[in-house]
Write a structure and sequence with these properties.
The chain has one domain. 73% of the residues lie in helices and 0% in strands. The two termini are 21 Å apart.
């Protein structure tokens, strides 16, 4: 039997994977990680360790920001009154549905269509520090696609403030693992991601519909009911 928290954590991990598979950024990720390491994807095989280590610090950068955001939400919202908790569920559910509709392309949100990609214009003495800083900047949302999925997770975290830290940390884990794998295989990953980009578009649309369903469950505060599989037996016995 799964709890509401189990479902939310699993969804957060899946959201992290979906963010990485965004067709907006997928083809350029290997090149960006290699550039942070001071090389190129053509020489990735010779500099695999350097690319992986810079990928690791990049992941640590955005993971730190997400973890701090989770602590903030947990601290500020955990002890609110029950009536306010209901409002948080309505607001969080609405946010999740909003971004789900955007991912499914059922609505257009102009400000999310403005691309933002971190540009390496300042370098520190250590490439690892540079990678960490740009990882932290990445947490703001690399592109509209990542921002929409992250927005859905923030809505879920706001509606479940007690689990906010673990939700955002799990999201960072789901997003970070593919980055580390890409750092190890940056050379071969580039062509694979270019071919996979079209499929990734449909994956994002499917995830958008999943966001809508989740948003409705959060808004109506029935996510815990769905998590309890006993409700199926109760329906069959009636």
């Amino acid at each position: 039997m799964y709890s509401m928290t189990d479902i939310s954590i699993s969804f957060a991990f899946l959201a992290g994977l979906i963010s990485f598979l965004s067709p907006c950024v997928l083809p350029i990720i290997p090149g960006f990680l290699a550039y942070l390491a001071g090389t190129s994807t053509n020489n990735a095989a010779q500099h695999r360790f350097a690319i992986f280590m810079n990928s690791l610090f990049f992941v640590l950068g955005f993971s730190t920001v997400f973890a701090l955001l989770g602590v903030l939400l947990n601290t500020v919202l955990t002890h609110v009154a029950y009536s306010v908790t209901s409002w948080l569920a309505w607001i969080g559910g609405t946010i999740i549905i909003f971004f789900g509709l955007y991912l499914t392309k059922l609505i257009d949100i102009p400000f999310l269509n403005v691309e933002y990609k971190p540009k390496v214009t300042v370098r520190f003495n250590s490439r690892y520090v540079t990678s960490f800083i740009f990882g932290a900047a990445f947490a703001a949302g690399w592109t509209p696609c990542v921002g929409a999925v992250l927005g859905g997770i923030l809505g879920l975290a706001a509606s479940h403030p007690g689990s906010a830290f673990f939700l955002l940390l799990t999201y960072a884990l789901g997003l970070g693992i593919p980055f580390l794998v890409t750092g190890l295989f940056a050379n071969s990953a580039t062509q694979f991601f270019i071919r996979f980009a079209r499929v990734a578009t449909f994956i994002n649309i499917a995830f958008g519909f999943l966001l809508i369903v989740l948003g409705v469950l959060v808004f109506t505060q029935t996510l815990s009911t769905v998590a309890n599989f006993n409700f199926i037996n109760q329906l069959l016995l009636k």
